[in-house]
């Protein structure tokens, strides 16, 4: 295969492979943490892995496009090179669109596991549904909007299209706006969710800040939408689209990192514990659900009351536990009154359950 790499082509290859490698490192650390330390994986882990599996073919396709001349001005390549490069780039775009949907869904599912406020859940479910549906149709119409399909990457072919290029551009811009809104919500909502959890103030801020990396992904989404609005014609498509490609890959990479970093806390605690005599053992297990009983001892003829609490716990390493301390207990309290008399009385001690809360 002839190599027509030039112009902005080397930039495409260098930037996208760097992003793909960095995202892979974080995803592997996340999977190690979930499987080896927490001993469990959830849908958010599967979706973030799928997101990387979408970023990888996007990078491969854009690399193939760059090798065929993408990144050069259209006047510097032949029509055949333009068609081959554009076909590879459009195929890659489809993977990117799907990856954007799955990465936002992964971040939303992670937050759903730790939020208990109903309107937070409504917002997250609505966000997932809106972004997923819009991305699905955008990826679908990337190919099936014209007959023959080849017209999409070779506009010189006569074709019958039920969605014009301008109409598809409008849909793509709408997807970009929805993605930007999703990034804003996913970066802002954790501050409200975490603030109600029983955690150290410093840890709340650190975790919320790590999830607020979504603001950088939001910025990429804004620039991507601007790049889409600028593509009103195909006069220099092979060169003008480079910015769109790079903003899209950067947004996807940052979303993967944003959804992954908060889940690495058990790994951080374990690594810190290795160098501090095993201190991680108390924190990498997540929080405990405890069943506590409060027993009140009250003499029959005196207003004395003794209270003792007995707690039994069990470990539950679900996805949200990576950001919660062991001390965050969910407690069920059972109050029992023990009535007894003085020595010499005939009545025997009597246990009477008073209430169960």
Automatic annotation (TrEMBL):
It is found in: Membrane. Pfam families: Fung_rhodopsin. It comes from the Eukaryota. Keywords: Membrane, Transmembrane, Transmembrane helix. Its main location: membrane. Residues 29-269 form the Rhodopsin domain. The keyword Protein biosynthesis does not apply. The keyword Iron-sulfur does not apply. One of its GO terms (cellular component) is membrane. It is a multi-pass membrane protein. The chain crosses the membrane at residues 12-33, 45-70, 90-112, 124-144, 168-193, 205-226, 246-268. Belongs to the SAT4 family. This is Rhodopsin domain-containing protein. It comes from Cudoniella acicularis. The lineage of its organism: Eukaryota, Fungi, Dikarya, Ascomycota, Pezizomycotina.
């Amino acid at each position: 295969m002839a190599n027509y790499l030039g112009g902005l082509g080397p930039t495409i290859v260098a930037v996208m492979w760097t992003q793909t490698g960095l995202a892979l490192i974080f995803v592997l650390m996340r999977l190690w943490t979930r499987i080896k330390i927490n001993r469990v994986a959830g849908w958010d882990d599967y979706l973030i892995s799928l997101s990387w599996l979408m970023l990888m073919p996007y990078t491969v396709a854009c690399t193939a496009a760059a090798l065929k001349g993408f990144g050069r001005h259209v006047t510097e390549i032949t029509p055949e090179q333009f068609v081959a490069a554009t076909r590879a780039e459009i195929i890659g775009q489809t993977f990117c669109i799907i990856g954007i949907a799955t990465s936002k869904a992964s971040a939303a599912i992670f937050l759903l596991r730790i939020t208990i406020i109903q309107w937070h859940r409504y917002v997250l479910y609505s966000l997932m549904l809106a972004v997923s549906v819009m991305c699905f149709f955008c990826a679908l119409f990337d190919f099936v909007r014209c007959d023959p399909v080849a017209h999409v990457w070779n506009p010189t072919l006569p074709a019958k299209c039920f969605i014009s290029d301008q109409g598809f551009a409008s849909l793509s811009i709408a997807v970009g706006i929805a993605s930007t809104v999703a990034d804003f919500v996913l970066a802002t909502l954790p501050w409200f969710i975490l603030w109600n959890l029983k955690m150290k103030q410093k840890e709340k801020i650190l975790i919320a800040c790590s999830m607020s990396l979504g603001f950088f992904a939001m910025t990429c989404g804004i620039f991507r939408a601007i790049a889409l609005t600028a593509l009103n014609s195909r006069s220099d498509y092979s060169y003008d689209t480079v910015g769109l490609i790079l903003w899209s890959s950067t947004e996807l990479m940052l979303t993967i990192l944003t959804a992954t970093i908060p889940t690495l806390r058990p790994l951080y605690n374990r690594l810190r514990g290795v160098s501090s005599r095993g201190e991680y053992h108390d924190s990498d297990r997540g929080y405990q659900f405890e069943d506590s009983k409060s027993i009140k001892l009250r003499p029959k003829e005196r207003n004395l009351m003794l209270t003792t609490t007995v707690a039994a716990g069990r470990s539950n390493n679900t996805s949200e536990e990576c950001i919660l301390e062991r001390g965050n207990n969910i407690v069920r309290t059972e109050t029992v009154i023990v009535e007894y008399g003085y020595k010499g009385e005939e009545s025997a001690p009597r246990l009477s359950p008073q209430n169960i809360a």
